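wait is this the right file?? whatever heres the structure
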């Protein structure tokens, strides 16, 4: 059984890697359905038909997403298009701040040149560089595919929510009769755990975004809503997301302000928010509902980032939690589930 299971896992990993264009929208739709399922069930208990309840919830999320994109599209496009110039400006300011260290480095280089036989004479060689194309022009080629994937996610999430328990029952009917009841109970438990986890995680990350927005507004930071959304989305990525957000806020602050006071205040405020979230809010709200140890989280981040890129990194923790929940219920995979356990 073990060799067969090993071969199956290798084939599954290869399928995830090669079939990302098909499997990624399906996975996102499934996680979105788990996230929205409690709201749909609440509406159904108020005697609203499941199809109508699913339509209302998905339509509300879609409208909110469209409005957010419309509000943030202009500043995001502007920052992306000016990214090379922005990085150059930030680099110049960082060099200015580090001028004493730079002078020390230049002195060390001159000493090294003297010890190696003198300073090379002659004018420096000229180089010609071609300005790269704007980032937005590079991204325009993927716009249609992104819209197609988004439509797939929206419609599939609607059908999963509208079907309610019927889809779960049909899945259980595919199994031998002696395992149907046990599998149906396992699916219900997995849905409950994942739905609760995704809901709490989303609320925590939304809180991080709101607090970041408030801190940036307090110091008149430009485009605070954009950076708040970046902070909320990247907070799904453990460890790396907060560091990237901190660096992005620092670079944006260096470019936007003449002094370093405002960037340092913004970075300090986000650092405090992240410390409160990671050390107080998340442990208090999730507790044992995050059954992953730090090694499992980091390895999951590397694996899903390798399989599905940035989107996989954002979904790494929910997907690893899902793998853990499934492994705890499948006999041959229980040792793997114990390996991931916190």
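ok assuming it is, sequence goes like this
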């Amino acid at each position: 059984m073990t060799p067969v299971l090993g071969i199956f896992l290798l084939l599954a990993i290869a399928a995830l890697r090669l079939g990302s264009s098909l499997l990624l929208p399906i996975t996102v739709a499934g996680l979105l359905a788990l996230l929205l399922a409690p709201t749909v069930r609440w509406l159904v208990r108020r005697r609203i038909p499941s199809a109508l309840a699913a339509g209302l919830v998905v339509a509300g999320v879609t409208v909110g997403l469209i409005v957010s994109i419309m509000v943030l599209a202009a500043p995001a496009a502007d920052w992306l298009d000016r990214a090379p110039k922005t990085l150059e400006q930030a680099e110049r300011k960082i060099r200015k701040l580090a001028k004493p260290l730079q002078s020390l480095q230049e002195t060390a280089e001159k000493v090294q040149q003297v010890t190696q036989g003198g300073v090379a004479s002659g004018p420096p060689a000229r180089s010609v560089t071609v300005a790269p194309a704007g980032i937005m022009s590079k991204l325009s080629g993927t716009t249609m595919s992104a819209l197609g994937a988004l439509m797939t996610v929206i419609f599939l999430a609607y059908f999963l929510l509208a079907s309610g328990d019927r889809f779960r029952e049909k899945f259980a009917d595919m199994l031998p009769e002696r395992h149907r009841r046990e599998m149906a109970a396992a699916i219900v438990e997995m849905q409950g755990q994942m739905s609760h986890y995704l809901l709490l995680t989303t609320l925590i990350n939304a809180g991080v975004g709101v607090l970041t927005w408030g801190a940036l507004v307090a110091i008149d930071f430009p485009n605070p809503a954009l950076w708040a959304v970046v902070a909320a989305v990247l907070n799904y990525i453990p460890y790396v997301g907060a560091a990237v957000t901190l660096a992005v806020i620092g670079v944006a602050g260096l470019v936007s302000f003449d002094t370093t006071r405002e960037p340092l205040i913004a970075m300090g405020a986000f650092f405090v928010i992240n410390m409160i979230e990671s050390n107080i809010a998340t442990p208090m709200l999730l507790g044992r509902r995050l059954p992953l140890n730090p090694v499992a989280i980091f390895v999951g981040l590397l694996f899903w980032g390798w399989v599905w890129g940035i989107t996989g990194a954002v979904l790494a923790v929910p997907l690893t939690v899902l793998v853990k929940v499934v492994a705890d219920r499948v006999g041959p995979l229980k040792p793997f589930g114990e390996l991931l356990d916190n």
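The two ends are 27 Å apart (CA to CA). so i think its the right one actually
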